[in-house]
Structures are given as structure tokens and as C-alpha cells.
Amino acid sequence: MKNLETLTINTDKFFSSKVYKTINQFLPKLNNLRLIIPCQCCVSSSRRDIIIQITDLSCLPTIISNLTISQKIPSYDNHIFHILSSTPPPNSLRRLDVSNCFFLKDLFDITPTLTHLTVSYPSFPRNAIKLPSTLEYLNISGYVRDSPYTSESTNFCEYTKKWIDMFPEDAPSLNTLILHLYASPERLFPAILKFSNTIRHLDCRILLSHMSDICMCEHPCHLGRQLHLNMIRELKNLKELKFHSRLEKEEIDNFPASLKKLWIINVFNNRSLIDFANRRGIEVFELHQI
To answer: How many CB atoms lie within 10 A of CB 175?
Structure first.
């Protein structure tokens, strides 16, 4: 066990930070930790019970640089909401995935030297004016899950605006950007261009809802397509691209010469496009959409 580097903790009891002491004592090489936070089994006394569970990261062993927190949400009672509290982790933490969590006041803590961040609606970093310049990988999902904060009047685009405002001014190592968001194309795509010299892997998708502004002369499924293409043209070091809209083979000519892998929708109906891309040295794959 002393050579163990990756550990998943899944328990039917409340998570206790006492496990950190065990890790420090018996697992000196542990680097990757996944915490599966269980939910308390109880009877709801009202239609909107909220249960707060403590996740104390302040004592996280400094040997752990990669942390994933996954929250179990009970399917048997949608009227009991389980939300996590958050405490600042040590600065030794480099990779954090909280995409399957609901936090108290939607806020979680990050470190100033974070390199990898995966997060989903409705969560935000606490007290973050700008994301760390050390970021290498950023994955933000705006898909709306069941939440005590969700309502028909929610403006999901505001979630995107806040994240765009938090983009680091300079992130010299940011190479992977995955953004699936309700967003204005005119706001999102230009914001990505500040990382045009570093992005190697791009997966960017505009999500649609009845609240989206689709007044422009485009089919709703291809909202912002031309702006997307214009932005891609400027990513001179791009190697892998997932493109969620219609694509014509002639448009591939405008893609960066560095591009080596391309994912598109309905790939099997685009034989001529595949052949055209292959002649340019680009492998083409099927893009499966949710």
C-alpha cells in the first residue's frame, strides 16, 4: 500500500477528515484522491429541506496534488437538497474537479497555483477576481442540473459572463479549453482569443435555451457559427478541435496548419469532407453530442 498513488474513497457514512491522518501515515506516495461524498438518509419534514455537509480541505495532505470531489445526489427524494461547504485547500493542490458538486452559496475554494480546473453550474471560485495565471486546463460546463437555485427566470448567460470576467489576463501555459455554456457568441469567442498563442485543444459549444437570443439570421443549432470559425482561424497552435456546428469542407482550408485532429457532427454523412481533411493531414472523428 505504501506505493499507492491513486485512491477513491466511497463510503455509506459521512466523510470524515480523519482519513487525512491515515493517508499521511500509511500512503506516502498518494497523489490522486477522489472523494465520493455520500448523502444523509433522512425523512424530509418540508418541501425544501437543505442539508449542509462539511468538506474540510484545509487539512488535505500536501502530497495530494490532484483532487476530485463527487457528490452523491439521492434520486428517491428530489425535495431534499444536499450542499457542500468548502474550506481552502493547501497551495500544494494543483488539479481540482468539482463538476459533480453543489456548494453552499455556490462557492468553492481554489489555490493560487491551480493548473487544472473542472467545474459546472452553478459553482464559482470564492473571492476570485481573476483565475490563476498558472492554469493549463479549464473545463466549465453550463448545463443546468437539478438545484435548489434553479428557476425558469434564471438567466444562465450570467453564469458565463462571470466566468469570462474571471479569465486570467495572462495564462502562458493554458493549452486545453473546454467550454459548454449558455453564452453570447459576440462575448465568448473574442474572450478566448486572448489565449490564441497557447491553446492546443479546444472544445467550445454554445448551449441553447428558450432564453437565448437567436435573433440573428442563423439556424438556432448553429448560433455564432461564423464567429466561431473566425476565432478558430486565429489559434495558430491548435492541434485538436471539437466543432459542434455545421462545417463545410472549404472552411477547413482556413483552419490553422497545426490542426491534426477534428471532431464533427454527422461525420458519416461527410465523406467528401473527411477525404478533404485527410489530404491536409487531419484525422476526423465522430462528435457525439448530449
So the answer is: 19
